[in-house]
Amino acid sequence: MTEAHVILHTQGLSKQFQGFRAVGSVDLRVVEGTVHALVGPNGAGKTTLFNLLTGFLKPSAGRIVFDGHNVTSAPPERIARLGIARSFQVTTLFPQMSAREHAELALQAGTGLSRQWWRSEKRMRRFTPRALELLDEVGLAALAEQPSGSLPYGRKRSLELALAIALDPKLLLLDEPTAGMGLEDVDRTVALIDRIRAGRTVVMVEHNMSVVGSLADTVTVLQRGDVLAEGPYDEVRSDPRVVEAYLGADVA
Ligand SMILES: Nc1ncnc2c1ncn2[C@@H]1O[C@H](COP(=O)(O)OP(=O)(O)OP(=O)(O)O)[C@@H](O)[C@H]1O
């Protein structure tokens, strides 16, 4: 049997904020081609860990290796260039711009011409065919010309996914992809992530355990900045330490 390829590896990764330990000493091994979920009660350190992985925060200690590159403390642009993309947040969409224009902009960002985009609408047109393909991939073909501000919430989140996969990242980081959604949108998003995971590795922070159960190959449970448990979903969810951490959080 060949050993699974670890595409993302952290060793002793930690982050302190003025002495407060938000991420303790995390060793994470994400296997290429899998969906790896990060779960844990509020304040467990999930968002901080994401910010460390994408270079938005610098670690206090430890190491991050992605696809053979040491990216510890690397700037976000370098990490993005190496193939890590994070799902955009709804708040970063420009309400007047259409879904297609957002997709064109995301594609254009990969060409290094970012500062000139506004100079020529004609220049953007070369990205139109791929932009429409991307929107089709996330079920937004019929809404391509709508201003993004007028899209229903669930569709805005689909647009974020389209933007995150625009540059065909090797590793996709999804921050609570179903947060705030109704059942129908949750189901559609699960099906969508299941489609776009093909040929990629996904790390997602997700609170909805049925979403985690449907998508994740591996689950890492964080608590107060440390890894509490890790393994396949069925194993992890019946782990007494995990049950206690969640019950404890509920009671609190
Ligand atoms: N910039 C900061 N300065 C000080 N403390 C911070 C900062 N960012 C996060 N923290 C603290 O670090 C801890 C971990 O926060 P983090 O947002 O990573 O948790 P989380 O697991 O993502 O929680 P949630 O599920 O609520 O989003 C929290 O106690 C938080 O208050």
From TrEMBL:
**CDD domains listed in its UniProt record:** ABC_Mj1267_LivG_branched
User: What superkingdom heads the lineage?
Assistant: Bacteria
InterPro entries tied to this protein: AAA+_ATPase (IPR003593), ABC_AA/LPS_Transport (IPR051120), ABC_transporter-like_ATP-bd (IPR003439), BCA_ABC_TP_C (IPR032823), P-loop_NTPase (IPR027417)
Q: Does the keyword DNA damage apply?
A: no
The chain positions of domain ABC transporter read: 8-249
What SMART domains does the database record attribute to this sequence?
Answer: AAA
Keywords from UniProt, A to Z, are:
ATP-binding, Nucleotide-binding, Transport
One MF annotation (Gene Ontology) recorded for this entry: ATP binding
Pfam families per record: ABC_tran, BCA_ABC_TP_C
**Protein name in the entry:** ABC transporter ATP-binding protein
Q: What species is given as this protein's source?
A: Streptomyces caeni
Q: Tell me the classification of the organism that encodes this protein.
A: Bacteria, Bacillati, Actinomycetota, Actinomycetes, Kitasatosporales
